[in-house]
Amino acid sequence: MIVKLYGHATSPYVRKVRIALREKNIRFEWAQEAPSDPGNHIADLNPLGKVPVLETDDGRVLFDSGLIIEYLDTHSPERLIPEGEPRQKVLLWHVLGSGVVDATVARLLETRRAPTQQSASFIARQEEKVARAIAWADRAEKGRAYLVGERFTLADLALGLALEYVDFRYPHDWRSEHPRLAHWLAGISTRGAFAETQPPGMEKVLDAPH
Ligand SMILES: N[C@@H](CCC(=O)N[C@@H](CS)C(=O)NCC(=O)O)C(=O)O
Q1: 199 in contact with ligand 1, CB cutoff 6 A
Q2: Residues 69 and 159 reside in one and the same domain
Q3: Which ligand 1 atom is at minimum distance from the Cα of 50?
Q4: Cβ–ligand 1 contact at 52 (below 6 Å)
Q5: Confidence class for position 210, pLDDT limits 50, 70, 90
Q6: Which pLDDT belongs to residue 74?
């Protein structure tokens, strides 16, 4: 299977799909377009005007990172989303990770508005979501290499991606309060799929003191 992925390198939702493609060894063509690029084609493919968008090898167009990963998963072996009892656990971690990304994006966009138009309470609410979700993950994580079962799943992908995105766009010291979760992330971050898909500029953030 060869698929075509639309989206830009700094988008966490696009990166989520890139990590899944790499973990599953699926070949893909990457059209690096952002919905804000002049003359881009995203809205012709996705009426919501968002990336990622995936064109399948039989010409279907899918959007939303979660749905795209579900499609890729059922069309290739080595499931990221297991069947049976662990499935709900994995999907809950996915919801948590996606929520952290959503809050971090919302916070970032608010901080990019003109200072007089920014809402401090809106920013604080997003930061509280991130803090609560990190604390929840720290309590739920069992000190093992993987969050659910004995192998890498969408749970690890979603939380690892989310925590790295927090480091990238809302860098702050969450590690000193949650050293176990920090240790877990350090393990996940060494995977090829994570190392090879870092957004441009991420190296500088990771080198900076946390
Ligand atoms: N729930 C969607 C969110 C996708 C999303 O918000 N993508 C951003 C890029 S980081 C986007 O395309 N934003 C452009 C816009 O909303 O106009 C997913 O998981 O794919």
Answers
A1: no
A2: no
A3: 12
A4: yes
A5: very low
A6: 92
Residues 106 and 195 occupy one common structural domain = yes
120 and 65 co-located in one domain: no
Verify whether ligand 1 is closer than 6 Å to residue 51 (CB atom). yes
pLDDT digits (tens, 9 = 90+) for 126-183: 999 999 999 999 999 989 999 999 999 999 999 999 999 999 999 999 999 999 999 9
- Among 32, 42, 45, 50, residue to substitute to test ligand 1 (most atoms within 8 Å of Cβ): 50
Residue in the structure block whose two tokens are 């659910």 = 148
Query: How many structural domains is the chain composed of?
Result: 2
Residues 160 and 195 reside in one and the same domain: yes
pLDDT in tens, 15-69: 999 999 999 999 999 999 999 999 999 999 999 999 999 999 999 999 999 999 9
| The last residue of a domain, from among 33, 54, 74 | 74
Query: Is 107 found in the same domain as 19?
Result: no
Query: How remote is the CA of residue 135 from the centroid of ligand 1, in Å?
Result: 25
pTM of the predicted model, to two decimals? 0.95
Of the candidates 74, 95, 124, which is a domain's last residue? 74
Q: Is 65 in the pocket of ligand 1 (CB under 6 A)?
A: yes
